[in-house]
Enoyl-CoA hydratase
Amino acid sequence: MVDVTEVRSLGGGARVTSERREDGVTVVRFENPPVNALSGRHLVLIAAEVREALNADDVRGVVICANDADGFFSSGADINEFGGFSQESIEDPSRVFLFYEMEKHRKPVVAAVNGICFGGALELALCCSARVATPGATFSLPELKIGLIPGYGGTQRLPRLVGLENGLRMMLHSQVVPGVKAEEMGLVEAVASPEQLIDRASQVVLDLSSGRMPKIVTSDYSDRLPPINEAHALAQKFGKDLMRLSQGGKIPQFQACLDVTLYGVAHGSTEGLLKEKSVFVDLLHSPTGKSLIHAFLAQRATTKTGVPTDGANAGECPRKAAVIGGGLMGAGIATAMIRAGIEVTIKEINPGAAEAAAKRVTKNLKSSSPPALLRVTTDFAGFADVDIVIEAALEDVKLKQELFKTLESETNANCILATNTSTINIDLIAAKIPKAHLQGRVIGAHFFSPAHKMPLLEIVRTTSTSNSTINSVMKLAKKIKKTPILVGNCAGFCVNRTYFPQGQVADLMSTKLGINPYIIDRALEAFGLPMGPFRLADLVGLDIVAAIGIIYGMAYADRSRSSSVANEMLKLNWKGQKSGQGYYTYDKNVRGPGKPDPERISQMFPSALTKDSPVSDDDIVDMILLPCVNEACRLLHEGVALKPGDVDIGSMMGMAFPSFRGGLLFWAMNERGGAGPVMKRLEQFYRMTDGFPLFKPSFALVRTAMANMPIGVNPSPHREFGNPDDVVVVAGYRTGMGRALRGGFKDTPIDDMLAPLIQKCLETTGVEPDAVGDLVVGTVLGRGDSAVVQSRVSSFLGGLPEHVPCKVVNRLCSSGLQSIADGVAGIKNGYYDIVLAGGAESMSLNPFINDELQPNPKAVENTATCYVTMGQTSENVTAKYGLSREQQDRLAVVSHSRASVTQLSGKQKDEIVPVATTVKLKDSSGKEMKKDIVVDRDEGVRVGVSMQSLGKLKPVFKKNGSTTAGNSSQISDGAALVLLMKRSEAKRRGLKPMGTFKAFAVAGVDPSIMGIGPVAAIPKVLDKAGLTTEEIDLWEINEAFGSQADYSIETLGLNRDIVNVNGGAIAIGHPLGTTGARLTVSALNELKRRRGRFAVVSMCIGSGMGAAAVYEINMDEKNGKL
């Protein structure tokens, strides 16, 4: 029987209880879910209970144990407390009692250990008079993994119990010793079953207190220690281990542990314990200690994703899985799951491939025969029963799309469909299975090679992936002992995208700056990376590097640059390690790294023959890695990565960034000074390389530096309360943009496009149709009175009563924005309270060229240029400002890339109103027919547009010119509309504004170069708004032509990261009267998503003008936030 005498609680399940047994033994049991960490507050309670029990006359001794329901005696000290730890912390009275005084008390204390007993918990047990463990208990001192040494006597007491060699091995290797082995080593005195543990430990207390067992003070026990000369000789046996573990001496804790242990052998435990304290605190605050502790905490935090886990969101760990493809990657994935007890089916293309797959898995498992949990097949039999399928086929979009289409039909309705792609957009892979995708069943499960060994798993969610799917794959990661990081969907995801700059920068450094490739590699390897960028490229394969480069060239054309020599190397079959020659030369008969071959590669890299570098090793490291930091900041700003720690874990576990530096972002923050110094260093390299784009600081990094915040933390701009008299947008919608003459709207008049938008604005806001004061429509091409008549018709079709008037506005390409500005002015002037304003255009039903327009004979010089075609003005811009074809094409690739990513993700689906219409077609015989369709997307967006594909197009407007159909805006059909009212009216109606119309400006420019209109209009509108370019969070600049858009962006100094983030008119289209309103709708929705404050919309205007408007999102008046 026991008598519970006291319970001391800390809240949150943390508590300490004392139980008085009839035999005179007090059992002190501690609990701190989930891993029973020994926090400082917990140690105070434990010390108080033990001290009180030992001081009681009727207590013969104490048993210390834990509530081990979760398999933990204790994980050790609470590492979260280490940040403020000091020498004084160690000398806290509670710690002094438990770790220094308790072992010398006349009454015995016995540790009863079941479960994990690591770190400070084992040191606590070592301070007891004896230890009793279960067979399932495990013991370890893993402090060296986090840059420390044991700090509570472990270096002194452990060797005294288990012998110097065993003790050093346990500490240096963070060896885990099970209960039975611990008894053999002398670490525990007895082993008992969990049911008998407390009784057996209590008996040991009684045996010690009665003298039947000798009571040993561990720190005074030296029978198992050798003489100091033998100890030094024994320590020499660990020399090779020390060099390997400390990475050639870069990490100090291993040598420190050895030195402190030997110091205690030489000078006794008292001096040894003092030395241990001092060294422990020094290491705790050393760069290595801080870095490794950060890495440890960041790894633990990767599972904190913010994804709901309640109810239907919880998900279940898959029990049966299938893998498509049994190559090196597929077999590795299968191996990892089989080791965890999961049944796996591998699907291969033929019997030979199936047999090879089985052999790979068998070899991975180091088995003589295929495991019982493995089934290899050449068909899809049995796939209906699996919980998850992981596709690990070749990196081919069409192949993966067809596989997923088959998998949708072959699996059950709850099966998770995962892809192991490393670079391809998952929405694109899932494009052929919209039903399964919308159900949330598609996800990325990106393993790193070799999959059964590498610890990282990138779990890639799309905007459609369900919470239950995410949580199921997170649970799978835990079961197969992988560290998961949840990331967003983009080319390269988190890890590979972060690191894509390094190879391109290395190529630039060797070909343009004249730095020897081998010197670059040596500098990175001396820094702590296992290999530099050139050796890594050889390992991956230069053909694969080139293929991946094409993907990045399409996805991030604004900053990605192809290698100037890669194709030449591939022509010579220099593919790297696989072909025997790459940047290095490889001997097929000799294992190990390749050898430098400067003579051979000097034909590609003359710098290979140079002996000295024009820059320092630190410069080389910074030039390679800081662009990766820059890219990581973009990832965090875009929400691809959830937190900086996830990027650090990805860098360490996915790209072998040295853990003793804490990960990529931790290194940049702590060793390179943080955002400000990193930004300045990048700017220095940008100038040094004549504007190499990967060195240009990202918007995210610049904003972080301006706010003086840690790298990776994205500061949100402070929003202010609006004024009741502000005119605000309370609703905004648009149609999809149809391709003129051949798209879904080619036979649809503007009234049929506008009417659904009118209805949507009124329905979502609850505004009464008769409360609308005016309908203002920007439109350009309708001749005569047709535009006014069609706008009036749209008002009736949209549900407006006859007393609501309408008008049309024509300021060419800015008409949609001008109509909004006119509506705002009307409200401010008191003409009406509520206005519907926007734009509509049918470039299919109205001729773009007005043949009736005759030049005025008085028009000369710049006046005459008002008649110049828009295409010719583009060529004029390129000629006057020296814009290259490459610049224009690159902007076009970016436009299509961003628009396609947005469209595939469905990010803008809520702003697009599907419009049912009828299109006229011709059948195979040429007979006209009609077809009912729904236009619900932007039809001009193209996936996979590249510099190569655009480079094949011929100039349109000038022989030997550079403006092509590919780098010009598309002619399109579409409409967009917003609902405007004063903030006070919106508040009265209970409507939440999307944004405030803050300022508007129009400016004139030389008509012959009309495309530069934004360069004149934007400074003017910013001046009116009292803002600078640095304060703007989002830019929507109409891409009439790549030439004028690129010139405007560069001249104004805009950061391209926040310009046309969802693509521009080159991809989406430019229905002239609509564009200003479309940009407004998209900008306000995106500004909200980004938690920004200010957005600018701008465009050039034919005949030589530019227009711009500033929108602002204000704080909500009720609670101060949106």
